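Hello again, I could really use a second opinion on something today. I've been staring at a protein lately and its backbone has me curious. Can you walk me through what the tokens say about the fold? Take your time with it, there's no hurry, and the full record follows here:
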Amino acid sequence: MGFNIAIDGPAGAGKSTIAKKVAKELSFIYVDTGAMYRAIAYYMLQNNVAKDEAAVAKEVENVDVKLAYVDGEQQVLLNGENVSSFIRTEEVGNMASFVAKVSEVRAKLLDLQRNLAKENDIIMDGRDIGTNVLPNADVKVYLTASSEERANRRYKELCEKGISCDRDEIERDIIARDEQDMNREIAPLKQAEDATLIDSSHMTIDEVVAAIIKLK
């Protein structure tokens, strides 16, 4: 049985960045569940599937998502193709929040996520890891930051990549995704009762990493 660390929190809280660093420090496997949902969202967008739960539920039967690890870095395979470099757009992120509401999508990914955790020491991040995917995780963290700070971080990240964007629009998208994630019927985003709350609004990445490692 592996040692499991679960990190939940809203979009843009820095979960992936933090989890990768913690995994490296502890020599754990990092599992980015959001990337799995993004891969399915990317498939739906590429195949012009409407934002309709019944349509997504039917089409997800044709989707196969797997994780591979190259030099310790997680790669996401969609029907055998590495799509890791295509799934980080705002459009895919917004679609991912929608497909995550569909029970057939969640069921498809749940077994994969739990089997990884059963067999390995892992750190897994997402929206419902501590509450639903790994309710018996050894360490649970709810990582958050203000919508303003999350928007600033995303804006800076996109600008550094040379992508034209509007900071206010990014914050509106973040608030909308929070609303959608927290109010979906299936496994909504919320802090597990036994999770440690970490607000990273005024913390450095290294400070957050150190705080999580202390919990182990």
User: Anything to note?
Assistant: Residues 4-215 form a domain with the Rossmann fold fold (CATH 3.40.50.300).
